[in-house]
Structures are given as structure tokens and as C-alpha cells.
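Need Winged helix-turn-helix domain-containing protein's 3D structure for a figure. Predict it.
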Amino acid sequence: MDKHIIGENAGIIWKLLNNGERWEYDKLKAVSGMSDRDLNLAIGWLAREDKIFFERNKDDNKEYLYLSLDLYF
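Structure prediction for Winged helix-turn-helix domain-containing protein:
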């Protein structure tokens, strides 16, 4: 896998997450059209850059991904 493609896929995921919602993995996979491998690589890229966070919902025990925005004033 080429790092350039992983970076492009990370950009696609970042754009999808850029709506203020928390996404389930399966929904993100379906909307992006990426394979598990490509999606996991993109998520790993964004996580390494501290761009996304993971959260487990106590009520339904599901994990969600969401975007972290760094704001500097």
C-alpha cells in the first residue's frame, strides 16, 4: 500500500467526520466505500496525528469515532 493512497483515504474519512457527529465503524465503512484494510489504515493515520478520537457508549456498548478540531487563538 502506498503512503500517498493512505493519506488520500485519511482525507476522505476526515471530510466525512467533519460534520460534528459521532460515527460507527460500519456506517463509516459503508459511506466511504473502503475495504476494512483501507479504512483501518486511514483511521490509524488520523489517530496517529491526533485528529480523531474513539468513544464507547455505555448504553449500547458501541464504539464511535469523531473528529478532533485543534483551535488556536
